[in-house]
Amino acid sequence: MQYKKKLIWLCVIVSLLTVIQVVLPYRPYWTIIYADYIFVPFQSLRNIIFGWSQLSFGDLFYLVAGVALLVLPLKWIFYSFTFKKNAGKLSHSFLNTVIFIASVYLLFLLGWGGNYYKPSLTNYWHMDVTNWQDDTTEVAYDHFLINKLNEYAEGYEPLYFMKVRKDAMKYYKEHTDCKARLHGLNIKPSVYGYLMQHLGIQGYYNPITGEAQVNRFLPSFMLPFVVVHEMAHQAGIAAEDDANLLAYTISIQSGDPTFRYSAYLNMWLYNHSRLRRRDSVMANEMKALLNPVTLHHLDTLQQIRERYRSDFSIYSSSMYDVYLKMLQQKEGIGSYNKAVITAWTWEHNDTLRRRTRLDIP
User: Fold this and answer.
1) pTM of the model
2) Which of 215, 290, 305, 313 could form a disulfide with 200 if both were Cys (CB 3.0 to 4.6 A apart)?
């Protein structure tokens, strides 16, 4: 009887997963319904439940899941060696595991995954990115960003975490039509700060608890941009290049010198890496034009990379690349620096720049 109930429940979950996977990719109208009536209320509810504490419940979830992944195979091995006595326990344990994984995946799709099927910000904002040229435009945008960094470096002031959090939430309310801006946005320092340093992770969004976490050891000049980026995921922006674009545009529209400086610096890092791969000599010549404050910040980043450089960061990047490609992001981890194209396009679109509120699909 127990097997029958579990199999029925598994069939229900698989049926729901099948319907979601079939409907959302090919029914754009349903992605709007999903965003407005499923994701936003669910995101707001999760933030109300988990947002009262600075403790990351998502971090604890991953800890429990990690322990379970270690213990479960050992349990199955033990049941296998005592098969005659524990055959029923082994089959029940295996079936329960399948049901649990399917349930978590269903929760992932309902609470977050459906956002991957929404239109990109590039399409939603009707942006024409065809004018970008890898050779000439990269150099022109590098010049633009260097000039902006030299302009705003003098007004840059390090902000403590709670100040960045408060201001970022305010800028979402003032400069976007984000439907989750009232109750769905928050940011927390991850308890895995040291681990994130070794893995090269600046922040992440937990699709189960709806929490956004940042590396608590992140340099202050990187923090504003990363915070706004992770909040973009809470706002329903799934693609990493879109989250970078939204973080960039909100930071610029805010008028806040520190947020602007952080946005220009992060986008320069993406653009400079592209330029360096194509012409390292020119990239070094361009870098020499930066002001002393920014050069000091770049030295700080280099010291952090050298201190925590390990194979772990390579493995984590490879795994994350596979994860992104599985979720409709064909360029994988390379999608992050794709935002330089859309950010440059936004800078040259007067109609978009004059908008007082940014539309979010």
Assistant:
1) 0.89
2) 313
